[in-house]
Amino acid sequence: MSTNIELRQLRYFVTVAEELHFGRAATRLHMTQPPLSQTIFALEELIGAALFERNRRGVALTAAGAALLPEARRLLAQASELPALARRAAFGETGRLVLAFVSSADYSVLPPFLRAYRAAYPQVHITLREATSDLQLEELLEGRVDAGLLIPPLPDKVKAELDYLPVLNEPLILAAPAELPALRGKTKANLRSLPPLPLIIFPRAISPGLYDAILAVFHAAGITPAIGQEAIQMQTIVSLVSAGMGIALVPQSVGNLRRPGVEYHRLSQATPLVETGLAWRRDNASPVLKGFLDVLKSRL
């Protein structure tokens, strides 16, 4: 004999409890009274306690029935929500999105993308992880994140497993200590006219594309910069500039990061465009990820 309570039994019990009359309850349930009574007796036997007092004056809930009624209603309500819950999950309307991002994306594409996605899918829980491009590739391959905003290129060894979509191209600008005489009153900076200040830059191992783009600007100007400090976060690089430790070339959007003692200048030299893009596992069939990609593509 089964020891599991069925939703059908609970539905019958709640109907009788609301009507306090087996005949009226049977009519509401579009059934005859004998099978209804048999179902209630079976439920009482399963629970091990009477749920109704039955006498000539009518039907009343016992203490056990009164205790069961609110819980039975709650379980029936939850069960009725299951199909809609499953549909929302199937269409990416609920669930969890784990999104990694390089620090420069925090000052450019990340905030508007998140606002648009949150407006379209308010019930999805978003987990954000700030990480360098190299760490994002590892986490993507191991399935710890769903997607990552990173700076290419993608190594050949991961291209077979990841898809990639460019989302932003922007020039480099100069971040320099405030009040440099060579920059006073100028909106654009010529690298050749600057004093030989140390260069603050990302380590090449974590962002070879950005590192090479920065050095290419100096080499095109006939300058071999002295590397003073290496830092893995844009915030740290800008803070080191504000401390007078040197200069830096950063993506244009980083100019939105304000620090006392730092000035941003466009360069008179042409600069390569620094690309930011979104990468994700090609075999990730998550409806939540699909929804995020749809929103992102609609804004490009």
Overview of the molecule:
This protein has 300 residues and is an alpha/beta fold. It has 3 domains: 84 residues, Winged helix-like DNA-binding domain superfamily/Winged helix DNA-binding domain (Arc Repressor Mutant, subunit A); 99 residues, D-Maltodextrin-Binding Protein, domain 2 (3-Layer(aba) Sandwich); 101 residues, 3-Layer(aba) Sandwich (D-Maltodextrin-Binding Protein, domain 2), CATH 3.40.190. 40% of the residues lie in helices and 23% in strands. The chain has 10 helices and 13 strands. The strands form 4 sheets. A 5-stranded mixed beta sheet has the order 4-3-5-13-6, with helices on both faces. It has a 4-stranded mixed beta sheet with strand order 8-12-7-11. It has a two-stranded antiparallel sheet with strand order 1-2. Helix 5 links the parallel strand 3 and strand 4. Helix 1 crosses helix 4. It is rod-shaped, with a radius of gyration of 32 Å. It starts with 6 loop residues before the first helix and ends with a helix. 28% of the residues are buried. The mean pLDDT is 93.
* Mean pLDDT level: 93
Radius of gyration: 32 Å
Q: What would you call the quaternary organization?
A: single chain
The percent range for helix content is 40-55%
- CATH homologous superfamily placement of the largest domain: Periplasmic binding protein-like II
CATH A-level architecture of the largest domain? 3-Layer(aba) Sandwich
Quick one: biggest sheet? 5 strands, mixed
Trace the largest sheet across and list its strands. Answer: 4-3-5-13-6
CATH topology-level fold name of the largest domain: D-Maltodextrin-Binding Protein, domain 2
* Structural domain tally: 3
Q: Which structural category do the helix and sheet elements fall into?
A: alpha/beta
